[in-house]
Amino acid sequence: MLTLAQRIRGRMRREMSHRVEQLTYRLGASFDLAENAREACFSGRFSFMDGRFMALFPTCDPRLEFLVLQQADAAVRHAFDLLGSGPTVVAHGIDCQGFEGVRYPAPLPLQADGLGHWLSGRINRTNLKESQRIWRLVGEGYSPIDWQRDFISGYRWDERTWHRDIPLGHLPGVDIKVPWELARLQHLPALALACHFARQHMPGFKEALIYEQELRNQILDFIANNPPGFGVNWSCAMDVAIRCANLLVARDILIASGASLDEGFESCFAASIYAHARHVIKNLEWSPMYRGNHYLANIVGLLFAAAYLPGDEEVNSWLVFATQELLAEVQYQFHEDGSNFEASVCYHRLSAEMVLWGCAVLTGLSQSQRAVLAQPEHSRLRPLPRLRPTAFEMHPVPGSGDRTSPVPPWCWARLGRMADFTEALTRPDGAVVQFGDNDSGRFITLLSGEQVRAGNDPSNPLWSLDHAALVADIRTLLGARTNLQGVDNVRAFTVRRFAGLDDCGTAHSRTHKDEAQRLVGDDGVWQKHLRNFEQTPPQSRWTTRFAAASSGLRNDVQCAAFSGMGCYVWRSDRLFLAVRCGEIGVAGLGAHAHGDQLAIELVIDGINHVRDPGTYVYTPSPQQRNAYRSAHAHHVPHVKGREPVDLTLGLFDLRGSATGECLYVGPRGFIGRHKGYGAWVVRMVALEDDHINLHDMAEGGLTLSSSDPAPLPFSQGYGRVLG
């Protein structure tokens, strides 16, 4: 642990560095004009996407083609449906729907001219000339996207504002996540993929050149209107890193389709990738304790840049650093049982997806890049924070014959357990349990099966809560055999080929299976707490009964225990029960945790009896944020008028909250407790032959009330509610 003096000195150094950076940005252009950017040549990690590969798609699932067609055509129209916006054409001067009655006035419409005069007054003085030069590369007739707009509330940030001065959560109804989400550019790979289908003359697709030019123009539009370090879309390094990866993937797929990009675009693109990577390095979202998915995104985005750019002193330092940090963060952020430490099932998917793509990048490194890792000449590498002089050993890649990578066996095993966790927390309807926050975040959405199953409708619960693609991706990367049948296998095989691997070997055995069935406590513990419940004063106990349609409810029930996060699941053909009891998350910060200790989700005979209400939103409405993460929103033991967590600390801060303690997990059910109300509150979940009983009891004279949750609208994804 760092001392207070060390933390103060570190903060002072960072603040001084930031001020120097700000002064540098204001005195000179922040666009990267380095010669190495102009000479960059990008490796073709998607070169396997040839005509033969694309011809397999119709035989696997014809819905995939239709998904790509719909998404590409929407991107051409600049129509986006993000975080509850509904389909919206994002352009300068549009009127927005507003958020819960809060709507900011639309700026005046603008007319973009081909010479870039319209950028005067919008781009800061030192970057204006280069922005105008880049804009002049945009094709005739293209209408710019307003990248700075929250196109739900209508609020607009200023592209001239230095990224560290961008306000966050400062006005009601304003959601900075909306422009961030759009600026991740996760729609661009679909545009690139549409070029493939168009060149295969698939029905419904426009000419390939239309998609190609749109992709090119949108990238140039973004670069010209978002000078590095300025505006809302450089204010969060996580989103910068995710955008970097999606830019590289989109361009790579486009080149694999047979497109030929002009020198002017290529120079701007390469310079932008360098700018993205350098910005991430300068703004790493690292903390000795409270780092999480943001820092993981920083590292994986940096790894993409290092893998795609030609090696030199700077790029090699990124490669070594990102490899070192990715492996360290897998150990830090994921428990041995595969669960993520942020106390959120949906953030587990986001972080596991980043680890998946990071491992795929490392597996597909070139010989020269592997040599850099095997014998890193640290004395010649540009110094980076926490860069350690370590030579990375090459290890066998599961299910690949004699292929090796810098990913060690323990990391591959933990990746497999991440899939086990997701599979276990998936309900019978295909949606995951929503313990903790859900911001609908993804890393790369290319060919995602849940989008097919959701009918390309972001309001469909499966869009955000169907995580089957992650499971298939991990299993296939680890060597599970696939024959390209089914939508998830198409994406999974694409990830595997991106990693430089060919056909799969034998099916991957689930490394966590035995550990997942480990029991806690014994029959004596169960009988003791049953007696305690019977002896508890009536006002301090509460029973809730959920009846089944017939007997035999306990037949063939299997249990999976993930004590790392604190999730316990009982499953059979008739029953699905999930219980949350464990850590607060992010080393006690609880940034994405809810007041859900001892909460359940329950499905009996296909009927939803208890379901977590979700998350809804973050900063646009602190009241809604707290309503959805409060204990009263969950089926937990309730003490009337009191909360077991302090919701006043901040929208992403639950420090000091009580952790859950598991006392029994086994064939009888579950027993757990917490001290969030000052005295022990205990919940027994008893599995009976024709019903489920929840016995809640409290010590210290606490009076329990009904454990039924407050009637909040079900939020199936960020910014969305059903009904």
Mean pLDDT: 92
**Which structural class do you get from the secondary structure elements?**
alpha+beta
The Rg value, from CA coordinates, equals 26 Å
DSSP helix count? Answer: 23
Largest sheet: 5 strands, antiparallel
Which structural traits does this protein have?
5-stranded antiparallel beta sheet, 23 helices, 38% helix, 723 residues, alpha+beta
Written description of the protein model:
This protein has 723 residues and is of the alpha+beta class. The protein contains 23 helices and 16 strands. The chain has helices spanning 4-27, 35-38, 51-54, 57-60, 63-76, 125-135, 177-183, 188-199, 208-225, 237-256, 263-282, 293-308, 313-333, 345-363, 367-374, 409-424, 449-453, 461-465, 468-477, 487-498, 513-516, 523-535, 622-629; strands at 79-80, 88-89, 395-396, 404-405, 541-547, 558-562, 567-571, 575-580, 600-604, 607-610, 638-639, 661-666, 669-674, 681-687, 691-698, 704-705. The chain has a five-stranded antiparallel sheet, covered by helices on one side. It has a five-stranded antiparallel sheet with strand order 6-7-8-9-10. The relative contact order is 0.09.
In short, what is this structure?
With 723 residues, this protein is an alpha+beta fold.
